Prior knowledge:
44% helix; globular; L-lactate dehydrogenase; flavoprotein; FMN-dep_DH; oxidoreductase; Alpha-hydoxy_acid_DH_FMN
Amino acid sequence: MAEILEINDLKNLARRRVPTMFFDYADSGAWTESTYRANEQDFSKIKFRQRVLVDMTNRSLESTMIGQKVSMPVALAPTGSAGMQHADGEILAAQAAEEFGVPFTLSTMSICSIEDVAENTKKPFWFQLYVMRDKDFVINLIDRAKAAKCSALVLTLDLQILAQRHKDIRNGLSAPPKMTPKNIIDMAIRPRWCLGMLGTQRRTFRNIVGHAKSVGDLASLASWTSEQFDPQLSWKDVEWIKERWGGKLILKGILDKEDAIMAAKTGADAIIVSNHGGRQLDGAPSSISALPEIVEAVGDKIEVHMDGGIRSGQDVLKALCLGAKGTYIGRPFLYGLGAMGKQGVTKALEIIRKEADVTLALCGKRTIADVGPDMLYR
Ligand code: FNR
């Protein structure tokens, strides 16, 4: 096996090990994928100021996100169907994050349930909520997340309607997946993945199946999901969810200054500047380019986090320099999961930590508190 040195190495290995329809599900964006590409590319336009002869001993990447200690300010973003990259994917990713000392966020659309992850981890994780039309089901999810002692609720705001990803349609990715001859062969040549899936009971969307009214299997889930995202979601809903939850609340999917100002008024603990990894509004700006304006508007009122396009520790630091207090990675940990299960997620985190640490030193800084705009050329 080629040496794994960067996130791209994990991506290449995952491409070989995960059936195409599931790899592509992770590795795709909406429509032309221009926002997905911009998320990554715009980081490379930002340049660091190299400094020399500064004492670089005793460095640390430790920080906090919403008041919780993190070994570095990088959380695992909520990603639906992570359990299709690797059997029991959400459990493995949560365990890797826990051991590394960073938050793991479980998606509503996960294969493993809130309870599955809680039973297999020791520390609290975060839960991401999609607000569905069926408010009883939303209440059921919130209450289950509370019972599992989740330490933050991440409320996603940018999916009132689902955008289209061409690759998923072309690959026949549906619930259940279309078993065309091409897909069967594609899976059969990846026996490691298939055996893993056969060896686990966790193959359906366990947060939903058996909990939402009239969803008893994968087929009924598909029609339920297509009509359940709530096009009437409003700031009023954010209020009642905040009330019902009663704990730390993070609002995800803010890309516009005006929305950031509204979000800050809700009294939430943080916002995530995000375009859903380029999976929703294609043609929207990259998250990193949207970040400075939002930090300027609300940075003194609410903690600002960001995600989208982070592929290295350098990208993490660039986001922090531009005012983010925390960052999230989606695909980098999914690639790790697909490539090597839990070990791959740990590897993704280690790569990012190493890159961030060395970059910090070469910029003449020692701690996250030292990180600021003076590290960059503007
Ligand atoms: C996502 N994302 C996402 N967000 C969310 O709030 N709930 C979800 O269920 C999902 N599902 C999901 C699946 C997959 C396969 C991906 C790649 C992404 C968006 C995710 O939380 C995050 O915003 C992006 O992944 C960040 O961009 P990068 O790090 O993937 O470039």
